[in-house]
Specification:
9 helices; globular; binds magnesium ion
């Protein structure tokens, strides 16, 4: 493997190590899109999540976000950034902006779904958002929401019958 070659497998492994299974992301995609797609299966959602994770830009965003969470967890960032990331400061915003970029290639449904998930926080996103533990998930919760939203946008465009 080339030094700067990443690949979906590495990103999935990184997510797993941080407590996120791609099946859990697919569950969110299913919740978001099943009201609009009668025959939507978990497999179709999972296939979309995997397709999103094949995009290099997505892989880069996941790596950057997870790295910052991990550095904050180990107190390896400097102040004031350390405290901003560790405390998941409400007005920090860089976590959402980094993640939002993931949705850009997937149309308006992906972007609006991301905003919706940022508000309602369901499933694994909610589990990651729990504050007070020694884990830092400031970037990860938004990355997961954005991957789910991008996959939901993809599902919408792929399976909606426009005839
Ligand atoms: Mg966040």
């Amino acid at each position: 493997m080339e030094k700067n070659e990443i690949g979906k497998e590495l990103v999935v492994e990184k997510l797993n190590k941080r407590g996120v299974q791609i099946e859990e992301i697919a569950n969110i995609v299913h919740i978001m899109q099943s009201p609009y797609q009668k025959n939507l299966t978990h497999e179709m959602c999972l296939e979309s999540v995997e397709s999103v994770l094949k995009k290099r830009e997505v892989q880069h965003a996941v790596l950057v976000g997870i790295e910052l969470d991990e550095l904050a967890e180990k107190n390896l960032l400097t102040e004031p950034l350390l405290n901003l990331v560790k405390s998941d400061a409400g007005l920090f915003g860089c976590d959402e902006i980094l993640a939002l970029g993931i949705t850009f290639g997937y149309g308006s449904i992906a972007i609006s779904t991301f905003g919706h998930l940022d508000k309602i926080k369901i499933g694994i996103i909610k589990e990651l958002d729990v504050k007070g533990s020694n884990k830092v998930h400031t970037f990860l919760d938004d990355l997961v929401a954005a991957i789910a939203a991008a996959a939901a946008g993809r599902v919408a465009h792929r399976y909606t019958n426009t005839a």
